[in-house]
Write a structure and sequence with these properties.
DNA-binding, homodimer, about 350 residues, alpha+beta, 10 strands
Chain lengths: ~350, ~350
DNA sequence: TGTTAGCACTCTGCACACATGAGTGCTAAC
DNA sequence: GTTAGCACTCATGTGTGCAGAGTGCTAACA
């Protein structure tokens, strides 16, 4: 539908606008790029492109600005072409990323934190990183570690090698070996269950098979439901609200406030990130966004997996006039990097 | 040095300016407050106050604005008077605070999170909350929970009733009872130590008294240093960057960027909060702040303790034109509230 | 001696007119 | 199909004038 020349001109306009944030005029194009065309010809083409819905004019005597539809075309064809020759990151960029990751990684949270930081620094936009908690882990065994005469710590080990714990009340004077007997019995009965399955009823059943202390049962219930809640909780990491203020579209305080308001509501951020838990890379442009408040923004989002399981989602949120090429390249790189780290988190 | 009338006028100017963010003129004062004085008289007094350094004039024909020195006087005398009749929070405010705290408290982190949120909502400024980690806890005992043929989880129980854990490598084929023997021995030798004391050398000594497996020793060292690091780490919770944008002094994007930049650097925030680990309430006005970047802001800060130990620090950061009275009242209330909760976190 | 009315002066903010420049759309010629 | 030329539009920047708020000073008053 678009001939090569229109395509070329559209691309030039998009990239120029992404760079300068100023409406692009026909003269500018003719001057900057050696197309062998006069401004008048380019004007005619631009007029066509506007009619086709790819360009918009802020006012009569301004240059033109790409529409959401134009970005869509641009991104789609870019994603296609990137399948063949993916990376456009400079050596420098990659070195920077590597060094940032090496900086201070002690646990999973640090990995996500670093990812958020890197994403925002490299793309000059807000980054959102969502860490899914493993809710599919299965119960392996539990153990009580005595603390005092009336309290103990319950440790639950799951088959993914992780451990959770909670404080529980025990009958006064219960001995260590009694506790061990109890935990052994309970472990046998609960083995293989998902943590979320271990609700009040099941626990009641299992527990009453081995003991009958009401106080301890109650605190067990509470501790386990706490652990289950913690495990099914998603965590959000944000980065780079500051960078946003460098973008000309966010010189208006009202707009900044709007976006900051959204980012401060953890629940909203989670919803946004969970909405696109597609596989692979997803670019949402302007009003394609379902959430009010970011309808004038674009978002590039990617989920990453480990053994087929979604571990998390990362996204870059910014004005529709976003450096899509760079953002996508960074995302692709981080994606690979993360999957390597996650496989072998030494 | 200031007679009563000057004092009174100064107070009126400060409070009016805090409310309106506009320079205050002599006519306004005469109209709003029934002082029995004409604008001209007030003008004379204001002229004196300016000479004394309490007032400043943005330009010749504007009203006057309180200087840092004026705020200092205002805050000091207010803190004094609040010792007698402390609270000025409305019933409504208190109810709001209570309900926010009840909302979703499952662990310590939630308490700090809520505090940050409440502080910023109630004061319309940025809130910073620093949670000190208990680095003074003493080792009680440790226990190994087997995971696989070559791995186990090490659980360390401390005398404050908390537990930490880490993954360690064990010699292939080591039995559960061998692990128990090891942990029992080690527990006896390490009992009563601070976690930070348990460094590589001490551990080497203790461990070689009970076993000689190099791999396990290495992973033990690593796990314990991780735990010690985590325990001595301070955590920061922020709230209400959005509220800031409601303040007229932050309509300028440059200033917002400046402050956001600071808030995004966790290390800087920690430094700021740690700098004032005085006891009790501390108000820092404008250039009294030692940190560049917040020299045009004021900060109200309070540390809270549990059994004499500093548990954390909370602060409100905003323009020098801050509602000191309200901020201080909220802080006082939260202070009491928190110390109650912390004493008995049911 | 303290207080006040009056007045000239200063500065900001706003509205308005005007020129400038960038950009377009259209037409006619190549 | 391409291009030069021209009239037209609109945003932006600048200068002017005016109203309003506020001050400082002086002289009169109690």
């Amino acid at each position: 539908m678009l001939n090569d020349r229109k395509r070329k001109i559209l691309q030039i306009i998009i990239e120029d606008y992404i760079e300068t944030a100023e409406p692009v005029g026909s003269r500018t194009i003719a001057r900057k790029h050696n197309l062998g065309l006069s401004p008048a010809t380019i004007r005619n083409e631009m007029s066509d492109l506007e009619l086709l819905g790819y360009l918009e004019q802020p006012h009569t005597s301004a240059g033109r600005v790409p529409s959401a539809q134009a970005y869509r075309l641009y991104v789609d064809s870019m994603v296609d072409s990137m399948k063949e020759e993916p990376g456009v990151l400079t050596e420098n960029d990659m070195a920077l990323i590597n060094s940032w990751y090496k900086e201070r990684i002690r646990n999973m949270d640090d990995i996500f934190k670093s990812t958020a930081k890197i994403l925002s620094r490299m793309t000059q936009n807000v980054s959102l990183v969502l860490a899914n908690k493993k809710s599919t882990a299965r119960f392996k065994y539990l153990k009580f570690l005595p603390l005092s005469d009336t309290q103990a710590i319950m440790c639950i080990v799951t088959d993914d090698g992780a451990m959770d714990n909670g404080l529980i009340d025990i009958p006064a004077g219960m001995s260590g070996s009694e506790l061990d007997y109890l935990s052994g019995k309970m472990s046998n009965l609960l083995k293989g269950r998902r943590l979320t399955e271990i609700n009040g009823d099941l626990l009641q059943e299992v527990y009453s098979a081995v003991s009958e202390d009401e106080v301890m049962l109650a605190s067990l219930k509470k501790a386990i439901s706490n652990i289950a809640a913690k495990n099914s909780e998603q965590k959000v990491f944000l980065g780079g609200a500051k960078q946003l203020l460098n973008q000309p579209e966010f010189q208006d305080v009202g707009r900044v406030k709007n976006l900051l308001g959204i980012l401060e509501e953890e629940k909203v951020v989670k919803d946004i990130l969970n909405a696109g838990d597609d596989s692979g890379l997803k670019v949402t442009i302007g009003s394609e966004n379902k959430f009010t408040g970011i309808k004038d923004c674009s978002m590039v989002q990617a989920t990453y997996r480990l053994n087929g399981q979604i571990v998390g989602t990362m996204a870059v949120l910014g004005p529709t006039r976003m450096e899509y090429r760079k953002v996508i390249a960074v995302m692709n790189y981080l994606h690979k990097y993360l999957e390597t780290i996650l496989k072998d988190p030494k």
